[in-house]
Amino acid sequence: MRIAFFVNSIEGETEYYTTTAFALAAMARGHDICYLTPGDFVLRPDDSLMIRTTTLKNGRPKKADTFISALQGEQSKIQTIAIGEIDVLFLRNDPSEDADERPWAAHAGAIFGRLAAERGVLTVNDPDGLARAQNKLYFQGFPEAVRPTTLISKSIEEIRAFVDEQKQGAILKPLQGSGGKNVFKIASSKESNLNQIFEAVSGEGYLIAQAYLPEAMAGDTRLFLMNGRPLQRDGVYAAFRRVPAKGDVRSNVHAAGIAAAAEITPKMLAVAEMVRPKLVEDGMFLVGLDIVGDKILEINVFTPGGLPNIAELHGVDLALDVIIALEQKVEMRKNYAGRISNRVLATL
């Protein structure tokens, strides 16, 4: 099996990325892997879809740092191949990273991923589902019971009124964004710096204002779902607690948050079950839920990360389970000769 990982850039990949864990797990099982980026698709006049892939010239590194060094160095090579020469296109880019400086690149994966799926390549998460999830507005399509009270607006008057209605204050963040960038806690609409915060966040478009959940002070729990259900092996869940740095409301690891072991409660599993139907319907093979109490702060469908943290905390490499699931889907696709849609196959 050959798996192509679609990422924002080759030079931006690191040894602690979950995509790296997937690549190592795939190679350990004897599969070929390659990487491609937003500028690496070619649709030729005869309607053939080609991809410019970055691969290793030889060897299958077993260590993350060795692999990344080879991928980004002279041990790599670029080849142009037909899309049909890969079995799986794993879309693992973060659109928000490209939204400002390379807007054309932000959704190239979903656009060309749709063409790949039409040509028989298993593409996950399903590109049509990802197209519907291009910003945090996607979250509003899930049951109200799992969402914090939320306002989406560009009006400072609307936001002030909303903040005043929240006894515990509110969180402001851009509708389009990730990694904890421009996330602020507002205790009152009378805060002197609210106008400055509003200007900083609204410069990126619409804002989300969410009722602040006091439990978030202790951090949130990132729980992975695969095929709509919690990913686990032998009682170890693909989950970890993201603890905010002192004095920071953001628990994102990229924002100095700390990864710690998480206890998965029946309440969390009930929340995961409540969002399962829509995730399955949208062909979301692998997602990350950020949970506080019985509420979900975000549903990460593009490039949920943290599996290396879980492996370090529990000694269980759940990236391997993800690769095995892809093997099973490729076998299903062969057995049914294209009679099962990509969207359905993505979560079987």
From TrEMBL:
Its EC number is 6.3.2.3. SUPFAM superfamilies: Glutathione synthetase ATP-binding domain-like, PreATP-grasp domain. Keywords: ATP-binding, Glutathione biosynthesis, Ligase, Magnesium, Manganese, Metal-binding, Nucleotide-binding. Residues 136-327 form the ATP-grasp domain. It catalyses: gamma-L-glutamyl-L-cysteine + glycine + ATP = glutathione + ADP + phosphate + H(+). GO terms for molecular function: ATP binding; glutathione synthase activity; metal ion binding. One of its GO terms (cellular component) is cytoplasm. This is Glutathione synthetase.
